């Protein structure tokens, strides 16, 4: 019998809630999901350089984290068990999505990075508008 592995793409909002702890319920759900990953649960995590760029920008500009704090956060993400960092995007597909929907271009790019048969784990409801990706929140792992 083969055990199913959940492939999950961890989007920016998950890490922002985790590092800022600005919403206790969401923080708890994110901590639980990240602990499951670290404990070796059947969850295969993915993220991307675009997500890391957004995290860096939001933590420094919005939350006024120092460069040292942001680097510590980024390296903590990169140290996540079995994490795959996706660097490839499909600019043409992202532009088509951006033209069609009223969402951020970065989200359109991220949507092109989500591996097949994966769910994007996010609090950003704009991803629910993109029909080519499956959308979920961390609380679904609680």
Computed over alpha carbons, the radius of gyration is: 15 Å
Query: What form results from the Cα inertia axes?
Result: globular
The CATH class name reads Alpha Beta
The description of the largest β-sheet is: 5 strands, parallel
- Which fold name fills CATH's third level, the topology? Rossmann fold
Percentage of helical residues? 40-55%
CATH architecture: 3-Layer(aba) Sandwich
Strand content: 5-15%
The secondary-structure element order is EHHEHHEHHEE
Q: What is the straight-line distance between the termini?
A: 25 Å
Poorly predicted spans = none
Number of strands: 5
Tell me the CATH superfamily: 5'-nuclease
Whole-number total of structural domains: 1
Widest sheet: strand ordering: 3-2-1-4-5
Number of helices: 6
Mean pLDDT across the residues is: 95
How would you describe what is shown here?
- The protein has helices spanning 12-20, 24-38, 49-62, 67-78, 91-100, 105-111, and strands spanning 6-10, 43-48, 84-86, 118-121, 134-136.
- The protein is α/β, with parallel strands linked by helices and 142 residues long.
- Strands 3-2-1-4-5 form a 5-stranded parallel beta sheet.
- Helix 1 packs across helix 2 (24-38) and helix 5 (91-100) packs across helix 6 (105-111).
- It is globular, with a radius of gyration of 15 Å.
- The two termini are 25 Å apart.
């Amino acid at each position: 019998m083969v055990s199913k592995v959940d492939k999950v793409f961890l989007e920016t909002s998950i890490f922002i809630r985790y590092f800022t702890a600005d919403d206790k319920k969401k923080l708890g759900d994110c901590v639980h999901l990240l602990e499951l990953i670290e404990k070796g649960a059947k969850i295969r995590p993915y993220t991307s350089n675009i997500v890391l760029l957004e995290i860096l920008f939001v933590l420094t500009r919005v939350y006024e984290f120092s460069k040292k704090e942001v680097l510590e956060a980024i390296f903590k993400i990169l140290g996540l068990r079995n994490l795959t960092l996706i660097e490839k995007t499909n600019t043409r597909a992202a532009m088509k999505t951006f033209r069609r929907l009223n969402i951020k271009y970065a989200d359109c790019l991220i949507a092109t990075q989500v591996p097949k048969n994966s769910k994007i784990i996010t609090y950003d409801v704009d991803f629910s508008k993109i029909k080519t990706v499956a959308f979920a929140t961390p609380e679904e792992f609680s």
